[in-house]
Amino acid sequence: MSGEQNLTVLLRTLKPILNDGQFVFTTVQELPQDLGHVLFFFKETEGITVVCLKKDADLHGYKYSSVMSWITLSVHSSLEAVGLTAAFSQALTQVGISCNVVAGYYHDHIFVMEKRASEAMEVLNNLSNPIA
Known about the structure:
Layout: H1 7-12, E1 16-18, E2 23-28, E3 38-43, E4 48-53, H2 54-60, E5 68-73, H3 84-93, E6 99-103, E7 108-113, H4 117-128
Antiparallel strand pairs: 1-5, 2-4, 3-4, 5-7, 6-7
């Protein structure tokens, strides 16, 4: 199944879920041998971005500047869907919430500053269920 592409359906069925934990983005020059603590990584020219739980970053001595919360949009969005990222990022922008987006095969994942997570969830739920 390739996922939903219709933006109206996607927005109506976002169903954001706030995942447990405090998450951080860090960078390393080489991947650790054991990737069990890594949520995901991405190779860039300057280094390897690693996202993991804050407690694991502290344990491994990773440096980070922000503590984030992880929101999963539970709708199965197609990788070819147009406008979903723009819609939720615009809604978050309107209230001054920065977001970092990762697209998985099944779902979009949004990382927001931990202190704004509840507000971000409210914005996303309102986007999914607009007041008539």
